[in-house]
Amino acid sequence: MRPDTAGTRPAPGGLLTHLFSGSAVVRLTVTMSALIVAACLVLSLVLIRRHLAQIRQGLEDHGRMIGEFVAREAELGVLSGDLEALRQLGSVATAERDVLFARFLDKENKLLMAVQATRGWEPDAEQHDTAPAGKEQDVYEVRAPITTVSAQLRREELGFTADGHPAREAQTPLEQVGTVVVAMALRPYEEQRSLALRTAGLFSALITLLAVLSTLLLTRGPLRALASAAELAAEHERVAELRTRFVTMASHEFRTPLAVILSASDVLQRYSARLTVEKQQGRLQKIRNAVRQMTDLLDDVLAFGRAEAGGLQCTPERVDLESLCQELVADAQVSALATHRLLLSFRGPSREGRVDPKLVRQTLRNLLANALKYSPEGGTVELEVHSGNGSVQLRVADQGIGIPPEDLPHLFEPFQRAANVGKIEGSGLGLAIAHRAARAHGGTITVHSVVGQGTTFVVELPPETCAPADGGRRRKVAS
Amino acid sequence: MRSRIRTLVLQVAIVVAALAAGPSPDAAVPPRVAVVVSSNLGPFAEAVDAIRAALAASVVQPEVLIFDLEGRQQKAADVIALVRQANPSLIVPVGTLATAAVLAGPFTVPVVFTMVLYPAQSGFLSHPGREVTGAALDIPLDAQFQTLRRLFPEARHIGVLYNPSETGRLVEAATAVLQRHGLTLEARQVDRPEVAPTVFEELLRDVDVVWSVADSHIFTPQNTSALILAAMRSRIPLFGLSVAHVRAGALVALSCDYADVGRQTAEIVLRVLQGEKASALPPTSPRKVTLALNRRTARHLGLTIDPDLEREAEILQ
């Protein structure tokens, strides 16, 4: 069997291109939404940075204040080496919020005393200057110098101010005698940062969602209009192509029988007296065949036209499938004469089915005609009917030329014919009509084909379901 | 018959002798010693423990009763009343507060004070008709200034803060002693504790070394650190009063062994209980005196300590 295959319907004319190039409103809306999202993200980041900087600054200021206070009070303890005094001072410092430990170093940077808070990590006594490895990111260290007056100034060394008072303070230089290191926990900062990032993430997601929803809302109207316009344009394009294909097909398919009629009628007109009765009957038969061919073609065109216009109505009724199929096989056998063998078989518990006889007849007639047309002489065409549980399955198998895989996707489109049909005539409407008839019935039609071996079509008609009037127009089923 | 008479006479003689001798309370009841402690400070506790141990180890083995003023003068009347009820044979006040309270009380029993600084200057020895003596904490001025000279041989001007009513007589005595050593004492009076730091800063400009006297107008808890820090900042050595001062930053101090002072006290108590008159026993000075030295302070002051002295000293920091 070599089925007629329908031509490729063009994609609906670059819809996205239409969307983004056709409407300034859409472009403006999308751009504005993107700008809003970007602005919100930038604003969030700036606010987060500022917020975190404030937290960090607060932490540093707090640490510095504690460090300076402790350094002031630690002067005597460091000078005298009074470890108990330093320990008490360290306890005061570590009692402060976020302070992890306090260390007192002497002038040579040797550790005098380390006091840790009851919370946090334990400082390593041997590491005087830095926090333990791997902990730097958790701790902010404040270092404050511990100073003292560098030297005694005797009376004779003292300067005097204009009013006669000694200007000792002004002349007394400070000497660093040690360092206090106060470690602040960065955990509050890290927590705030994490919280801010989470908040920003949620905020950004919300803004993005709002922007997208706004975009969709604002562009819904224009998008619909554009989609409709694109669809309309595609439909016009499709109709125009159908028209072209129809003209091409008609001019080709009608010319041959018309030529036959003209030729046969000329011969009869000019030479009828000299022709034998048999030869005259032969010429007349040719004219009748040509007329029938044209009639069949016109029937196909009309049927397809009805299907396209939604005129295929499904009216299911209880049908004797055996009689129906025997009638169809007999009709097909007449066309096939003795060159092909047609086999009819039934499976399943019932030989009846609730179907629309017109649609079934239309479907099977086209499938059988195709099977015979594209099968070699002597080939066998099988029609197998399976009825049960209310559903009906019709299977038409041939041993024909088969369908190339690349043609399968377009199999049920009108006026399309496979590449391997050669000179076999056909309108390219048969399978399109069969497909639309099956769809109008709420059923499906599937195909399995191997080039050079044959093709099998399976029509599945579900129990008492009929598709909408135009249901088969746009959908196609192929395997 | 004669032997009967002889026996009767002997029995009468024994009874008369027994009656004449009477009951001996000393032999039956041990003497009672009341120890009145000024407060529960560590040095006081150390001394009291030593007193109890020494008395318990003695032949007399007096009964020791402890009374505590808890550092409050207001409690003195109640404690004194309790001591009277106890009817002790001897009272041992520990510290200045307890000594003053006991001497103000209506006691006629001997008083052996201990852990008291400057008892003479405080007037503790000038109670006519009272049997008073004790173990003072005073380290003799001579000993103090000898140490000072060994530490600072080039020092000429020695400074001191004092309150005339409390330590005026001690400072007078010190002036005389220092003169013998060829030194000058720059003594500045302090009327109120609040002015001590200011007066001290002025003093520091004029002296080479500061010597300290135990004066409650000077070394108050609020002042002590400020005074030590001022001396440190001015790089003037401070001769402190105790190991605590040295630990806090004073360069040196002479400190005594409080347990040994307690043992000295117990020795006096036993002598009085055994019949010696307290007023005949002069107050003692500490037998064991230690020099405490803060090496870190010395380093800050830029001082080099005599190695012999350093060997003798208890080094802190």
Please render the helix and strand layout as text.
The complex is a heterodimer of chains A (479) and B (317).
Chain A: H1 15-22, H2 24-73, H3 75-80, H4 83-94, E1 99-106, E2 111-116, E3 139-149, H5 168-171, E4 174-185, H6 187-271, H7 277-308, E5 317-320, H8 321-336, E6 341-347, E7 352-355, H9 357-373, E8 380-388, E9 391-397, H10 430-440, E10 444-450, E11 454-461, H11 471-474
Parallel strand pairs in A: 6-8
Antiparallel strand pairs in A: 1-2, 1-4, 3-4, 5-7, 8-9, 9-11, 10-11
Helix pairs in contact in A: 1-6, 2-6, 6-7, 7-10, 8-9, 9-10
Chain B: H1 2-21, H2 25-28, E1 32-37, H3 42-56, E2 63-68, H4 76-86, E3 90-94, H5 96-104, E4 111-116, E5 132-136, H6 141-151, E6 157-162, H7 164-180, E7 184-189, H8 196-204, E8 209-211, H9 221-233, E9 238-240, H10 243-248, E10 252-256, H11 258-273, E11 289-294, H12 295-301, H13 307-312, E12 314-316
Parallel strand pairs in B: 1-2, 1-3, 3-4, 4-5, 6-7, 6-8, 8-9, 9-10, 11-12
Antiparallel strand pairs in B: 10-11
Report on this structure.
The complex is a heterodimer of chains A (about 475) and B (about 325). With about 475 residues, chain A is an alpha+beta fold. Helices cover about 50% and strands about 15% of the residues of chain A. Chain A is built from eleven helices and eleven strands. Chain A has helices spanning about 15-20, 25-75, 75-80, 85-95, 170, 185-270, 275-310, 320-335, 355-375, 430-440, 470-475; strands at about 100-105, 110-115, 140-150, 175-185, 315-320, 340-345, 350-355, 380-390, 390-395, 445-450, 455-460. In chain A, the strands form three sheets. Chain A has a five-stranded mixed β-sheet with strand order 6-8-9-11-10, covered by helices on one side. Chain A has a four-stranded antiparallel β-sheet with strand order 2-1-4-3. Chain A has a two-stranded antiparallel sheet with strand order 5-7. In chain A, strand 10 and strand 11 form a beta hairpin. In chain A, helix 6 (about 185-270) packs antiparallel against helix 7 (about 275-310), helix 8 packs parallel to helix 9 and helix 9 (about 355-375) runs antiparallel to helix 10 (about 430-440). Mean pLDDT of chain A is about 80; it is low at about 1-15, about 120-135, about 155-160, about 165-170 and about 470-479. Chain B is α/β, with parallel strands linked by helices. Chain B is about 45% helix and about 20% strand. Chain B has helices at about 1-20, 25-30, 40-55, 75-85, 95-105, 140-150, 165-180, 195-205, 220-235, 245-250, 260-275, 295-300, 305-310; strands spanning about 30-35, 65-70, 90-95, 110-115, 130-135, 155-160, 185-190, 210, 240, 250-255, 290-295, 315. In chain B, strands 7-6-8-9-10-11-12 form a seven-stranded mixed β-sheet, with helices on both faces. In chain B, helix 7 (about 165-180) links the parallel strand 6 (about 155-160) and strand 7 (about 185-190). The longest helix of chain B is centred in the N-terminal third of the chain and has 20 residues, at about 1-20. Chain B is elongated. The termini of chain B are far apart. The interface of A and B includes residues 76, 80, 84, 151 and 155 of A.
